[in-house]
Specification:
This protein has four helices and ten strands, in the order H-E-E-E-E-E-H-E-E-E-H-E-E-H. By secondary structure, the chain is α+β, with helices and mostly antiparallel strands. It has one domain: CheA-289, Domain 4 (OB fold (Dihydrolipoamide Acetyltransferase, E2P)). The strands form two sheets. A five-stranded mixed β-sheet has the order 8-1-2-10-9. The protein has a five-stranded mixed β-sheet with strand order 3-6-7-5-4. Strand 1 (19-27) and strand 2 form a beta hairpin. The radius of gyration is 16 Å and the shape is globular.
Length: 168
Amino acid sequence: MTEGSLITDAGSKAERNRIEEYLSLMVGGQTFGIPVLQVQDVLSHQTVAPVPLSPPEVSGSINLRGRIVTVIDMRVVLGLEPFSEDQYPKSVVVEFGEEACSLLVDEVGEVLELNVGDCEPNPANLDPKWQELSNGLFRLESELLMVLDISQIVSAPEKALDAQNAIR
């Protein structure tokens, strides 16, 4: 697993049997999970103010109880088509350090309690962009749940800007 993986190589048996809660969400037909402790809020459709010269991943910003929050289109981050004007995505507000970001997703599911020891490494044939954004996956009854690495998602717009500036 990667540096940000859920279990270290030296992980104890107690660590492997630890239960964590994940908020499940859908983006482009794939189920993802975010650790519940990083979720601040779940919002229905919000009016997003555009931010000039922002990278494509940034849809704009919202005012959340007096705090300006960057809105990230998870479809773009994952290399999928962005949300269109006639779609009404859900918004999952996550905290990472001092940063709060709103992640636009297709659907928000339920909170799942999963055994950390059941988390598997990303498959070798997974798209490299998705590899970078994932801390591993869980096999659910009828699907796979990919655990999102919030630190990588929050930094995705910065990386996109750096790439754009390198081209110029």
